[in-house]
Amino acid sequence: MRHNLITACRRGRMSAQEAFDHLGNLLEARLERFDEISGALPHWDVPAAAAVDAYVEGIRNAVQANLYWSLRTDRFFGAATEEVKKTRKVKVMICPKYLQIEVWLTKTLSI
Fold first, then answer.
1. Rounded CA gap, 43 and 39, in Å?
2. Which of 84, 91, 56, 59 is nearest to 70 (CA)?
């Protein structure tokens, strides 16, 4: 897949581990910010507060559901899904084709 954040990081010359670490840190920071902002929302009258609370909880559930779904389907990890759930380790291509082509182009253009 050429159009995702891991690919963008890899094209920016990060190693596979650096890319996953970087994006893990970004995700963690965004989740912490979500908790911070949702905890600091102003107080409204009862009907509005209930609607806002339900909306915020819906967003929180959608994020969590996406994670759970990714570990229940074979879309991301294929036959290794159960192993990924147990070990929290994912096998990735160290040098996928899209990086090999870019390295080849860089070397070709440098000559």
1. 11
2. 84
Neighbours of 18 (CB within 10 A): 13
All structural domains of the chain with their residue ranges: 5-110
pTM: 0.72
Helices (runs of H) and strands (runs of E) counted in the chain? 5, 0
Instruction: Report angle CA 9, 59, 26 to the nearest 5 degrees.
Output: 25
d(CA 111, CA 105): 10
| Per-residue pLDDT tens over the stretch 87-106 | 988 888 878 887 876 555 55
